[in-house]
Amino acid sequence: DTPTGASLRREGQRWAQHVLEGPYSWIMSAIYILATVLAGYTPLSAALRAARPSMLEVPATAGAEASESDAYVALRYVVAIIDSIIYAFLPWWTTVLLRLVQR
């Protein structure tokens, strides 16, 4: 094994990572979307639900059920907007993650 051959193999591995970055990113994005759609929750919406939403409920009055407070409804919309941004830029996020892992 010559130094030139070893150098060429290192560069070949680096080039292969670069060439396969797109398909790997697409697969990672598809897995994330599949998992969140099947689960019915994104990580942020699951965290919001786990953050004791009962503290944000409007107490029930006579003959009526408890309802969500305006603050909780607004917070749900904020989380939905952030989730939409995550989905929109998911290929970029997964590419950055892939590059960090491959270092």
Largest sheet: 2 strands, antiparallel
Strand order of the largest sheet: 1-2
By DSSP (H or I, 4+ residues per run), the number of helices equals: 4
Give the beta-strand count.
2
The number of domains is 1
Radius of gyration: 23 Å
**How much beta, percentage-wise?**
under 5%
Beginning-to-end CA distance, first to last residue: 25 Å
Query: Which stretches of 5+ consecutive residues score pLDDT under 50?
Result: none
One letter per element, helices H and strands E, the order comes to HHEEHH
Mean pLDDT: 86
Helix content: over 70%
Structural class: mainly alpha
Q: What is the molecular shape?
A: rod-shaped
Protein described:
- This protein is mainly alpha-helical.
- It has one domain.
- It is rod-shaped, with a radius of gyration of 23 Å.
